[in-house]
Specification:
binds ligand 4UU, alpha/beta, 541 residues, nine-stranded mixed sheet
Length: 541
């Protein structure tokens, strides 16, 4: 492996040949790409209503969105909050904002008002897009909000944004400014807790987005012989998370593929959508893969004929789930993808050939990226076959955490190495395998939960003196938050009361789901929670 690993520097090079990254601004790249796809092909389809936005409408809609936003006073550098479930309008809004050189921040629409407030203030959002039902809820933010209709009809007009008739009449709006956007300018701020602490704004530039499109989406497509314009992707993964945002909101349009958008996951709807739209590609997280396999066992085989590739990522998947899937749908190519918010979703992707199948690996590192595997105790660089923390370097690595130099310095060193907090090894053929996680985050169905955030909520309870949260394994969700609690002497606080208390204060997916009362919380001399000790406590329960 001498050509991709250097024992002197400890650096792993991507085994893929490097890709030339465009020097043009992101939107020039995107508009060029949009214009390549012929008219009449569907870009976005709402899985339930069937409402469709063809490629020919995509760019005019984006421009019209930009024009309306401009008229509302949004300009370069302003931040717009998108608080939406998956929607065919999601990409239109994102590109409309980016068109103006403004910045997008996205968030789970199930977040509580205090969570939303925190992110809106931190990112300095001045406008929000949300569901009409949520307009009341976010009224308290003190910024204007636009209600996005759940399903089609007259498209953007329903948002009160523009004259849609003019749009479909073929006249593009003429009042769209054309700001100079540099590749280093900020495009997106997503929230991630990184290796420690509570969530922080991950600042991604236009260059990061170009890297994502070229090194992940377009590179992967170039490895296959199929016609991308015939591929149909089922978008269940949330578009507010980096996985869905990179792939469904931004990347796939560069291929001219159709994106079937599921607003809310439902196993029966999933089967219907796959059958009705002849879905070819489906990105999942481990619990979704299991749900898909269960359906595939009980529903007639003809439904699954169109499926070509199923990917699983965002959280560790068990060997059993993989084997179950590939045995149930042997004609489908199964791969794992690995990435993180801080690397704009770029990381590694599986690639199977007739002879070569490594389902349990996360595949080969993306082109133009470099890695190191570092022993986190001694700091030494590990060769293939030996495990350590994965470090990443390359054009997809974030600019840093928003207004947080300290966290940025801990996470990305002065040479550009991003500490992933994942324990991995490269095998003799350069395939990446994940073993464990060094960082604190809990992955509930692929969503990030920061233990520090739940701990801060728990200790606001008058009967709780100290608390520590860690991941407990869970058959269905992968991991769930489990709280160790030191209660006030004589308190009658019950497990149920703790669960309820947290449930009122955080988004549903973040709820604490297990509670253990203990006599003490393991802490270092400096007061830091000893998380590895917590995890070993779990094994003794
Ligand atoms: C075990 O989850 C993501 C990004 C996911 C993704 C998946 C497939 C991106 C591209 C792709 O092709 O981002 P975050 O920031 O929410 O969480 C990142 C963390 C990683 O550091 C790792 O701990 O999520 C975990 N993770 C995985 N764990 C991501 N992918 C995997 C995986 N197996 N395949």
């Amino acid at each position: 492996y001498s050509h991709w690993y250097s024992p002197e520097t400890g650096i792993y090079q991507s085994k893929h040949p490097p890709v030339d990254l465009p020097k043009d601004p992101f939107l020039d790249v995107v508009s060029h790409i949009f214009s390549q796809h012929h008219h009449g092909v569907s870009a976005l389809i709402d899985s339930t209503s069937g409402h469709t936005i063809p490629y020919s409408h995509l760019y005019p809609l984006v421009k019209t969105m930009a024009s309306s936003l401009h008229q509302m006073g949004i300009s370069q550098g302003d931040v717009v909050l998108i608080l939406l479930p998956n929607s065919v309008y999601f990409p239109i809004i994102v590109f409309g904002v980016l068109y103006l050189g403004a910045i997008v921040t996205t968030m789970n629409p199930l977040s509580t008002l205090s969570e939303i407030k925190k992110q809106a203030l931190d990112s300095k959002a001045i406008l929000a897009f949300t569901l009409p039902d949520c307009l009341d809820k976010i009224h308290g933010l003190g910024i204007p909000a636009i209600g996005v209709p759940e399903t089609g009809g007259s498209d953007l007009k329903q948002m009160g944004l523009l004259d849609f008739d003019q749009l479909i009449g073929g006249q593009s709006p003429n009042s769209v400014p054309n700001p100079t956007i540099h590749q280093e300018d900020t495009a997106v701020i997503l929230y991630s807790s990184g290796t420690t602490g509570t969530s922080k704004g991950v600042v991604l530039s236009h260059r990061n987005l170009i890297s994502m499109i070229e090194l992940f989406v377009r590179f992967e497509a170039s490895q296959y012989e199929y016609s991308n314009e015939e591929n149909v992707h089922l978008a269940v993964m949330p578009m507010f998370h980096i996985y869905g945002l990179s792939y469904y909101v931004m990347g796939l349009f560069s291929l001219g593929s159709a994106v079937v958008v599921m607003r809310k996951f439902d196993a029966n709807e999933m089967v219907k959508a796959i059958e009705r739209y002849k879905v070819t590609h489906f990105a999942t997280v481990p619990p979704l893969l299991v749900a898909l396999t269960e359906k595939a066992k009980s529903v007639d085989g003809s439904v699954w004929k169109s499926l070509k590739q199923v990917c699983c990522g965002a959280a560790p998947v068990t060997r059993k789930s993989i084997e179950d899937f590939v045995q149930t749908l042997p004609h489908v190519d199964f791969i794992q993808g690995y990435g993180m918010t801080e690397s704009t979703a770029v990381g590694s992707r599986g690639f199977n050939t007739e002879k070569h199948r490594k389902y349990t690996s996360m595949g080969l590192m993306a082109p133009n990226m470099e890695a190191r595997v570092v022993d986190w105790v001694t700091g030494s660089f590990m060769p293939p076959g030996r495990s350590g923390e994965l470090w990443f370097r390359g054009p997809a690595v974030m600019k840093g955490y928003l207004n947080n130099e300290e966290a940025t310095a801990i996470t990305v060193d002065e040479h550009g190495w991003l500490r992933t907090g994942d324990i991995v090894y490269f095998d003799e053929e350069g395939y990446l395998h994940i073993l464990d996680r060094l960082k604190e985050i809990i992955k509930y169905k692929g969503f990030q939960i920061a233990p520090a955030e739940l701990e801060a909520v728990l200790v606001t309870h008058p009967d709780i003196l100290d608390a520590a949260v860690t991941a407990a394994m869970d058959e269905e969700a992968g991991e769930v938050p489990m709280a160790f609690i030191l209660k006030r002497h004589g308190s009658l606080l019950s497990e149920a009361a703790v669960l309820d208390y947290v449930a009122t204060k955080v988004a549903p997916y973040k709820k604490v789901r297990k509670v253990v009362f203990t006599q003490s919380i393991p802490r270092s001399a400096a007061g830091k929670i000893l998380r590895r000790e917590l995890r070993s406590l779990i094994s003794k329960i």
